[in-house]
Amino acid sequence: MSLLELIAAADERGLAASAVACLDRCLPQPPDGADPEPLRPLWVACADPGLWPDRLAQVRAALDAVADAKGAAPRIRKLLGEAPAGRAAPGLREWADACSLLALAVHLGAEAGPAAGAGTVRRCREAGPDGADPLPAGELRRQIRILELPAETADASSAGAGLRQVLEASAEGQRVLRAAVSRRARGRA
Q1: Distance of CA 35 to the CA centre of its chain
Q2: Sequence-distant (≥ 6) Cβ neighbours of residue 107 within 8 angstroms
Q3: Computed from CA positions of residues 165, 126, 177, 31, in that sequence, does the dihedral angle turn out positive or negative?
Q4: Above 60 in pLDDT, residue 15?
Q5: 99 vs 79: CA distance, rounded Å
Q6: Exposed/middle/buried for residue 8 (C-beta within 10 Å: 0-12, 13-18, 19+)
Q7: In 10 A of CB 177, how many CB atoms?
Q8: Burial classification of residue 4, based on how many CB atoms lie within 10 Å of its CB (0-12 exposed, 13-18 middle, 19 or more buried)
């Protein structure tokens, strides 16, 4: 299935986990003394929809307090501001889709520079990673896997394990992106 088909078929838990994972991977390296995992409260709310409104408000406040105005941080804050207050809201699928687009654009930009086009992102989401540069191709595969994991663990007894696997996949992706950004910055210096 393509990424777009998986987003269209995902349940609320899968959409919430996918969206939070996309935003989590795009977060820049936190400044010294800042919370290294500001989106952590939303991870718990992926498993428990009753916690979503309070945890979303908590994360919005935490990120609003960070004065980072460069990179993906402003776009992450904007997307968090647009997140549906109720996890069951009809806008959850659209929000997850927007988070997916941001993550792919950030990975494409880190690989190819800011001039990389939206056409590549659209093609990858529809047709797969073939022909894409390594960083966006890896992100696309990661997004697909993250959407598949909650579907594979749909029963209540394994739902927590599925979300832990999503968190692990997302953390690994965050390390990859931060390393790529660091290499690119060193190359400019």
Answers
A1: 18
A2: 135, 136, 138, 139, 177
A3: negative
A4: yes
A5: 7
A6: exposed
A7: 24
A8: middle
Residue 15 · residue 93 · CB < 8 Å: yes
* 115 pLDDT higher than 50: no
The alpha-helical segments, DSSP class H, found in the chain are 3-9, 12-26, 40-47, 52-64, 73-82, 92-112, 118-127, 134-152, 159-188
What's the rounded Cα separation, in Å, for the pair 84 and 93?
A: 10
Which two tokens mark 51?
């916690």
Does residue 53 surpass a pLDDT of 90? yes
| Average pLDDT of the segment spanning 78-89 | 89
pLDDT given at position 119: 74
Residues 177 and 107 sit within 8 Å (Cβ to Cβ)? yes
Assign residue 128 a region: left if phi > 0, alpha if psi is -120 to 50, beta otherwise?
A: left
**Dihedral sign of CA atoms 156, 173, 8, 44 in order:** positive
